[in-house]
Write a structure and sequence with these properties.
The structure is a single chain. The chain has about 325 residues and is α+β, with helices and mostly antiparallel strands. It has a single domain, classed as DD-peptidase/beta-lactamase superfamily (Beta-lactamase). It has helices spanning about 1-20, 35-45, 85-90, 125-135, 140-155, 165-175, 200-215, 215-220, 290-300; strands at about 55-60, 70, 80, 100-105, 120-125, 180, 195-200, 225-230, 235-240, 250-260, 265-275, 275-285. Helix 3 (about 85-90) crosses helix 5 (about 140-155) and helix 5 (about 140-155) packs across helix 6.
């Protein structure tokens, strides 16, 4: 009997020991043990804590590494409006040299942001590109698209319908912009229910990063408040920048506005901060809200001063 009790005790002790070992409490990781990447991620999140945007979609990313600092509905497909003029300029520049001459086919629309271009005037391609981007001129965009159509058709025999528009969509596809497509070269609404172009904030960030890295000279004038250009035929024209947030963004490299009934207010910029280059995109805001949205995003970015979290757009 005594031997049996001893055996039962030893069995119970052994089971209890095994049971307790299975539930030994694991050590808690202290904050100072976080990796550098995790600390940088927390810093990025903290910098954007107070950001409150009107935009339906937005993103901030490092254009050299692709690291994302901030995003809001970054993959939602939204109307692009005149952000469309950036891929237009990229494809036009493939076949038209900066000093090649373009003749204005008809009088352009006059508005408070730009002088009117008149039929018969001859302009250097580089000047017409700058005018179109800075003033966000739809007539300028259509003129560029028409001028590039024939040489683009020669370069891309497979192009269908409008070769300029085809190449814009082909470029978007080659860059992996899965939410992006263009129905016209200006971004103007096609109807009351259909925009002239669509894309996501993430796609726009990729597009602007590509533009800033591969063709910065095409967009340098978009970082200035106004320009004055002179035609081969002697006329002069001026254009004021449609980006009203320009002076509030230190380190501005390039930018483009967009505004239509369907798109609302859009704005995308590339800027330098903390020794790096970033792209900030705001889509689907209001006419004025796009400017305050981008100011919030760029200011938050400048406050970080550290590497972004390792998510790629």
């Amino acid at each position: 009997m005594k031997a049996a009790l001893i055996a039962l005790f030893l069995f119970a002790f052994g089971v209890g020991l095994v049971f307790s070992m299975a539930y030994v409490e694991k050590p808690v990781h202290q904050p100072q043990a976080l990796s550098a990447a995790a600390e940088e991620s927390l810093q990025g999140q903290s910098a954007f804590t107070d950001v409150s945007l009107l935009s339906q979609g937005a993103i901030v990313a490092d254009i050299d590494t692709g690291a994302v600092l901030y995003k809001k509905n970054a993959d939602t497909q939204l109307p692009l409006a005149s952000l469309t003029k950036v891929p237009l300029v990229l494809v036009v520049s493939e076949v038209l040299q900066p000093d090649s001459i373009i003749t204005i086919g008809h009088d352009t629309s006059y508005n408070s942001k730009a002088s009117q271009l008149l039929a018969g005037e001859e302009w250097r391609t580089s000047d017409l590109i700058s005018y179109t981007l800075v003033a966000s001129s739809n007539d300028g965009a259509q003129t560029l698209a028409d001028a590039a159509a024939e040489p683009l058709q020669a370069k891309y025999p497979q192009a269908q319908n409008s070769s300029t528009l085809w190449r814009m969509n082909d470029l978007a596809k080659s860059l992996g912009l899965t939410s992006t497509y263009f129905l016209n070269p200006t971004g103007l609404d096609v109807s009351s229910t259909q925009s002239g172009a669509y894309g996501s904030a993430r796609d726009v960030a990729k597009l602007f990063a590509y533009a800033a890295k591969t063709a910065p000279d095409l967009f340098v004038k978009t970082a200035t408040s106004s320009i004055k250009i002179t035609a081969i035929t002697g006329q002069t024209a001026r254009a004021e920048n449609t980006d009203e947030a320009l002076d509030a963004i230190p380190g501005m490299i390039m930018g483009k506005t967009g505004l239509t009934d369907l798109a609302g207010g859009n704005l995308a910029v590339v800027f330098a901060a903390n020794g790096k280059r970033y792209v900030a995109v705001a889509l689907g805001s209001t006419e004025e809200g796009r400017f305050t949205d981008i100011q919030q995003l760029t200011a938050a970015t400048r406050s970080i001063g550290a590497e972004a979290p390792a998510e790629t757009p």
